[in-house]
């Protein structure tokens, strides 16, 4: 049994009150000459969020909002890493194209239907990242035409995704837009890009 020896007295919150915020609320300013490792989201320090491959679009969106992320790793039914899914995948044209091609409704679409499988993702070895600068990462993101790039660590027991680079995060930290080149994934997108 828990013994309570002090009383707590809730009070009405005043109409005028302020929030306590951290002293440094801005993102650390970086330059293209800074070490690339300093802007990598290190999965040894930040827990990656996952979702099951059977999850519907609404569940994916809700989890992204709840976790404050724009990317989720997707696990297959056995719990193995199968790919990743981003907000662009669920909010862009992919759902409409999938429904048009396969019939059904948006509610029938799962993470498995929209994710980018592991075999179609680009990654850079951690050893290269340790020697690179931010400018190198920006260039690589543009060349692979993705908003995220994975960092692969080789260990005795196998290969692991150690980190992630985000074009959005880098743009915010650099104070400039480093959006990757446009990658058309359908004829409709290609026609709009060329128009």
Order of helices and strands: EEHEEHHHEEHHEEHH
Mean pLDDT, nearest integer?
Answer: 85
Structural class: alpha/beta
CA distance, first residue to last residue: 72 Å
Description of the structure:
By secondary structure, this protein is an alpha/beta fold. It has one domain (36-182): CBS-domain, CATH 3.10.580.10. Helices cover 32% and strands 19% of the residues. The protein has helices at 57-67, 87-91, 94-102, 111-114, 126-131, 134-144, 167-174, 187-194, and strands at 41-42, 50-52, 71-75, 81-86, 116-117, 123-125, 148-155, 158-166. The strands form 2 sheets. A 4-stranded mixed beta sheet has the order 1-8-7-6. The chain has a 4-stranded mixed beta sheet with strand order 2-3-4-5. Helix 1 links the parallel strand 2 (50-52) and strand 3. 22% of the residues are buried.
Give a quick precis of the structure.
This protein is α/β, with parallel strands linked by helices. It has helices at 57-67, 87-91, 94-102, 111-114, 126-131, 134-144, 167-174, 187-194; strands at 41-42, 50-52, 71-75, 81-86, 116-117, 123-125, 148-155, 158-166.
């Amino acid at each position: 049994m828990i013994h309570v020896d002090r009383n707590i007295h809730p009070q009405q919150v005043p109409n005028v009150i302020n929030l306590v915020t951290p002293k440094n609320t801005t993102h650390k300013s970086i330059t293209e000459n800074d070490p690339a490792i300093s802007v990598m989201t290190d999965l040894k320090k930040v827990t990656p969020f996952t979702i099951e491959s059977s999850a519907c679009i609404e569940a994916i969106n809700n989890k992204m909002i709840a976790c404050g992320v724009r990317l989720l790793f997707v696990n297959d039914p056995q719990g193995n890493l199968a790919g990743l899914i981003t907000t662009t995948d669920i909010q862009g044209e992919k759902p409409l194209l999938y429904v048009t091609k396969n019939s059904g409704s948006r509610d029938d679409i799962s993470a498995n239907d929209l994710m980018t499988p592991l075999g179609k993702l680009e990654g850079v070895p951690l050893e290269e990242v340790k020697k690179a600068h931010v400018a190198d990462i920006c260039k690589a993101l543009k060349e692979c035409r993705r908003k995220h790039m994975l960092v692969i660590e080789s260990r005795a027991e196998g290969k692991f995704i150690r980190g992630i680079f985000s074009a959005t995060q880098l743009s915010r930290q650099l104070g400039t837009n480093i959006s990757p080149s446009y990658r058309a994934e359908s004829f409709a997108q290609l026609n709009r890009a060329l128009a």
